[in-house]
Q: What sequence folds into this?
């Protein structure tokens, strides 16, 4: 019997709670730069991307519809700089794309110690939240009772 590893499905999606939603739009992504996706609260998420050697002016974060794109474009140094004997720190340009679930929005971003932190929050509109409907006996006007936050 074969077992399937679904871990790759979690790599490029944030905020999905249903497997079918995650399967829609999953794309393969290269391994550079490495990143983590964390759940920091019930409706809060954080994407951390290792961008060692990149400055704030060399990074861009774009959120459009349900897609979050993080780009890094390293500025080239002059030819008169020191000669590099071994280059183990990657300084190549990259573009990393994440598919976001409905109602997931970027709350903010920060760069510290070579790590880019992008904070996300899922804010479901009141009209989309479940609500409880009271059952009447047919003689009184129906009354809508709002659901209590759990």
A:
């Amino acid at each position: 019997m074969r077992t399937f590893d679904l871990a790759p499905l979690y790599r490029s999606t944030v905020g999905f709670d249903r497997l079918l939603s995650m399967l829609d739009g999953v794309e393969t992504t290269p391994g550079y730069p490495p990143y983590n996706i964390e759940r920091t609260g019930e409706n809060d998420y954080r994407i951390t991307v290792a961008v060692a050697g990149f400055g704030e002016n060399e990074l861009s974060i774009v959120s459009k519809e349900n897609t979050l794109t993080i780009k890094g474009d390293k500025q080239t140094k002059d030819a008169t700089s020191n000669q590099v004997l071994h280059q183990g720190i990657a300084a190549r340009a990259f573009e990393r794309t994440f598919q976001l679930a409905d109602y997931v929005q970027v709350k903010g971003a920060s760069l510290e110690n070579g790590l880019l932190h992008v904070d996300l929050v899922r804010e479901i509109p009141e009209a989309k939240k479940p609500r409880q409907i009271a059952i009447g006996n047919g003689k009184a006007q129906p009354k809508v009772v709002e659901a209590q936050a759990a």
About this structure: Residues 17-29 have pLDDT under 50 and may be disordered.
